[in-house]
Sequence to fold (428 residues):
Amino acid sequence: MVRRAASLRVVFGIVALDLIGFGILIPQLGVYGVRFGASPFTVGLLISVFSLMQLVSAPILGRLSDRYGRRPVLLVSQVGSLLAYLLFAFAQSLPLLFLARVIDGISGGNISTAQAVVADITTPKDRARGMGVIGAAFGLGFVLGPALGGFLGAWGGNLAIGLFAAGLVAINLTGTYFYLPETRVEGRPGEGHARTLKGATLAMSLPVVGRCLVLMLVFTTAFAQMEGTFSVYLLTRFLSSGPVPLQEGGLFLRAAVTDLDVLREASLRSGWLFAAIGVISAAVQGGLVRRLTGGPGSAPGREALLATVGFGLTAAGLALLPVAPDYAWLFPVMGLLAVGSALVTPCLSALVSLHAPPERLGAVLGAYQAFGSLGRILGPALGGWLFTRLGPAAPYGTAAGMVAMAGLLGLSLVAQTRMAGAGAEQRS
Fold:
C-alpha cells in the first residue's frame, strides 16, 4: 500500500510537470512563430504537429512499455522532451521551432505510459481514483503553465521559456530514475486498447457512444481553432502600443515581427488569459460539475444536458471573441469559453464510460481519446488557414457555428440518454 501510494505521487509529479511544460508553450508558440516570420496558418501547423506526433507515438510507446517496461520508456521519452525544450530555448528560426515540436510530440506520448503505470499498481476497484490523479495533474499543469509562460516570455523570451521547461523535465527525469520502480507485471497481457481504426469503427457503432465521439471531434476541432490562433489574434489587435498590422506574405510565411517590446507584451497578456481559463475550468470541473451531475442515482440524461449547456456557452464565447472592443473585455468572453469547455469535456467522457460495454471500455476510451487528438490536429491548422485567408474573425465565427451545431446534436443526445436510462430501469 505504501509503495503504491509513493508510486502514485511520482506519477502525479511526472504528469503535472509534463503538463506545466506543455502549458507554458501553448500560448507562446504563436508569439515566437510570428517572431520568426510564420503566417497564422504556419502557427497553426506548429501546434498541430505536436498533437500529430503524439497521436502516432502514443500506441507505439505503449507497446514498447508492455514489452520492455514502463520505467525505461518513461526515461527515454523524458530525455526526448528535455532535448526538445533545449532546442526551443535556443531556436532562432522557424524550422528549429518545428523540429522542437516534432521531438516533443513524439516524447509526449508518454502520458499513456503513465496511465499504464497507474493501471499496473491499482485494483479495478481503485482504478478510477488512480486515474483521477492524472486528471488532477492535467488540471494543475493547465492552470500554472500558461501564467508561467507569460511571465517567462515577457522576461526572457523563448530562451527563458525553454530553459525553465527543460529544468522541469530534468526534475522529472531524476524523480523517475530514483523513485519510480518498474511496475509492469511479467506475463500480464496489454490493455489492448491502442487507438486503431478498427477500434474507432466499433465504438462509432454504439448508440450513445458514437454520438459522443462525433461531438468530441467537432468540439475539440472548434476549440483548438481558438487555441491555435489566439496569440496571433491578440498580437494583431490588443496591445497598448496599438494593434500590430498583419504583414503581407504568402500562405506559410510573412514578414517577421521584430519589436521585442510588442512580443513581450503579447506573451504576458496571452499568459494571463489562458491562466484565467485554467483556473475557471479547474473550479468548474472540480466542484460544480460533480454537484450538478448528482452522482449515482441521478436522473438519466443529466450529463448530456450539461454538455449541451456547455456547447451553448462555448459557442457564445467564440462568437463574441472577434467583436470584443478592448483587451479587458476578453476576460469575460474567455470566461464563457472556460465554463463551457469545463462542462463539455467531463460530461462527454462520463457519458462514454457509462454507455460503453464493460468488456470494451478500454477500447472505447482509446477511441474517444483518438477523436480528441484528431481534433487537436485539425483545429489549429484549420483556424490558421482561415485566419490567413479570410482574416482574424474567420476562425472564431467558423468555430462558433461548429459548436452551435454540436449543441443541436446534444439536444438529441439528451433524449437518447434518457430513453436508454429508462430502458435500463425497466430491465432492472
The mean pLDDT is 81. Residues 117 and 183 are 6 Å apart (CA to CA). The chain has 13 helices and no strands.
